[in-house]
Amino acid sequence: MARPVGSVTRGTTGVNRLRRADRWLSAVHGRLLRAADRPLVVDLGYGASHSTTLELFTRLRAVAGDVEMVGIEIDPARVALARPYEREGLSFVLGGFELPVPRPPTVVRAFNVLRQYGEAEAWGYWDLLRGKLAPGGVLVEGTCSETGHRAVWVCLDSAGPRTLTFSARFNAFDRPSELADRLPKTLIHRNVPGEPIHAFLRDFDRAWAVAAPYGAHGLRQRWLAAVETLADGWPLYRTAPLGGAGRWRLGELSLPWSAVAPTS
């Protein structure tokens, strides 16, 4: 076997750490999985524990009963620890960004994997992974906090990045701009004046401040009010499956990647 493409990550993981992204993926792309012939999902770089891969498998099986999942890790010891938990439809293999799987995946999830790389490398791995997707498939790449209470992810298809999603527990921040530390590698160093992502987070903080009186009715009500204000100036998705009150009430919001893409 050729050497896997990529480098070993810290491997930090934990039970339910990726539940926010899993919930979003099930709701937004469940139809894609149900429509696919023999849908294959890859969990790339699952870390020192198999738990988040098993959780995603269980959640996706609830919306698409024939989903098959492969967890890929570049560390042989981690693969060996995970293999006793294999079952019908779920397996673990040694590999990296080359994706050693039997057919093109419908969905690739890669969380907390690209943070150790430079921005140019992250763009390159996006391109590599997009080129391996099944027709109509998606790559969900992002990062989250240790507890999973703050997360940001990008959804890409074969043509490139399409959406950016912020998700947070309502008491996990004082200002929305604190989610900047979860931005994908392709954006995290662009959070400077003159870049769209900086303007977005600045306006989100302002909307949060304006919505402060709604906090008397709870942080969820303050979030909803802030998002409504933010949507007056930014193209937030307002309807299902990507937006609207149903998703906003969960502490989520999504907008087109084009609204926050780097200027150069």
UniProtKB/TrEMBL annotation:
Record Gene3D superfamilies: Vaccinia Virus protein VP39
Domain of life: Bacteria
InterPro entries: SAM-dependent_MTases_sf (IPR029063)
SUPFAM superfamilies: S-adenosyl-L-methionine-dependent methyltransferases
Protein name per the record: Class I SAM-dependent methyltransferase
Taxonomic lineage of the native organism: Bacteria, Bacillati, Actinomycetota, Actinomycetes, Streptosporangiales
